[in-house]
Amino acid sequence: MKRLLKEMTRFLFGDVYYAVIIGERGSDRYDLASQIHTTRSSAEAHRQRINETRTYIYIETIRFRSRQLSLRKEES
């Protein structure tokens, strides 16, 4: 039953993705990082790599749903 509800939600609203918003150090420019992640843990690992650079600062991780974008691996 839980799987059915999950699949119905995915069909109606799309898959869940995560993106990281970054800022350039020393300026007021903000951008979306170049990667879209399928899991929160992957987005958090990317955030940690961003914090290790001198060029960018981490601002926020956003969660969104998309029916158009499909990074999901099809189950066989």
Attribute tags:
3-stranded antiparallel beta sheet, elongated, alpha+beta, 76 residues, 38% strand
SSE blueprint:
Elements lengths: L1 H12 L1 E10 L5 E8 L2 H12 L4 E11 L10
Give a description of the structure.
The protein is α+β, with helices and mostly antiparallel strands and 76 residues long. It is 32% helix and 38% strand. The protein has 2 helices and 3 strands, in the order H-E-E-H-E. It has helices at residues 2-13, 40-51, and strands at residues 15-24, 30-37, 56-66. A 3-stranded antiparallel sheet has the order 2-1-3. Strand 1 and strand 2 form a beta hairpin. The protein is elongated, with a radius of gyration of 15 Å. The model has no long low-confidence stretch (mean pLDDT 88).
Average pLDDT number? 88
Read across the widest sheet, the strand sequence of neighbours is: 2-1-3
Topology, number of strands? 3
Strand content: 35-45%
Q: Tell me the major beta sheet.
A: 3 strands, antiparallel
Indicate the structural class.
alpha+beta
Query: What order do the SSEs take from the amino end to the carboxyl end, as H and E?
Result: HEEHE
Using the alpha-carbon principal axes, give the shape.
elongated
Identify low-pLDDT runs: none
Please report the distance between the alpha carbons of the first and last residues.
Answer: 20 Å
Please count the helical segments. 2
Radius of gyration: 15 Å
The helical percent reads 25-40%
